[in-house]
Each structure stands twice: as C-alpha cells, then as structure tokens.
Amino acid sequence: MYLASKDLADLIIDKRGIEDDFSFYTVTDQANVSQPKGLFVPLNEESGELLDAIANGAIAAIWDHRKKLPQYTPNHFPVFFTNDNAEAIREIIKQYNEKLDGEMNSNMEITNFKFTNKKLLIENKQTYDIAVILEKLTNKMANTSERRG
After folding, report:
1. Which positions ≥6 away from 76 have C-beta within 8 Å?
2. pLDDT at 26
3. Whole-prediction pTM
4. Hey, which of 43, 60, 96, 134 would disulfide with 29, CB 3.0 to 4.6 Å?
5. What are the two backbone dihedrals, phi and then psi, of residue 109, each rounded to the nearest 5 degrees?
6. Kind and range of the H or E run holding 15
7. CA distance 33 to 41
C-alpha cells in the first residue's frame, strides 16, 4: 500500500496543481536522488532544487508557503503548501505508519522513504521524531521482507 495523494490532501489543505488520486513510490528530502513517482520535501537548504527533484522523478512536492515557488514549476504539478515542512513530513509518516498497521503482508508494495542524512535527522531536534518514526517503518519493512523468503 503506497502513500496516496489523497492521504496528503487530508492533512494539507493548501495546495495547487492537479488533484487526481495517485500514489507515491518514494518520499525524499534530496532533489538529486532517484525518486520514481516521488514526493519531494525539502527540509533545508542542502535539499537541492525543485527542478532537480522533478528531473529525478518527483511528481509532487511539499513546499514552505513563505518561500517563493520557482517560476519553472509546471501549473499542473501538485504542490502542497505548509508552514513547516518537517512537521508536515512527521505527520505524513505518522499517518502512513498507522495506515500500514495490520495491513502489512509479504506481497504488498510500500512507499520508500529516502532521507539521506539520518544522522542529521537524529541530531536535529526539529526532525528527531521523523528519524524515530522512520526507524519503526524501516523495521516493519524488514520484518515483512524476512517473511517473503
């Protein structure tokens, strides 16, 4: 079960772009990593440019509404505006983790959360909860893959 755009729409009301129901295969904070059917969530200045994220497969983004959205952003490209990207991703991961509870099975495909600097997540008070929830999600995924085979 993948993270769906409707899951985001339930959490984040301020948005633009197409409103189709689609799934995210990847969620990442780094623009320069491969992110097929990705949700790009820049957490800091080192996250990179939205254009790079789109080139690497991002199909939507979470964006701080206080920052100007780049002019090159396609009109149909879904953007979810928040006051705090770290808080938004924390809520998304929490909701997704709850969505998976009891739903995990050996054949299920799930969203891949790629946060490249997990040590930074743990050391940064603002994103510590993200690291803890990601650890639980990673353990859940590992347990499922062990059962596969």
Report:
1. 17, 18
2. 94
3. 0.80
4. 43
5. -85, 140
6. strand 15-16
7. 12
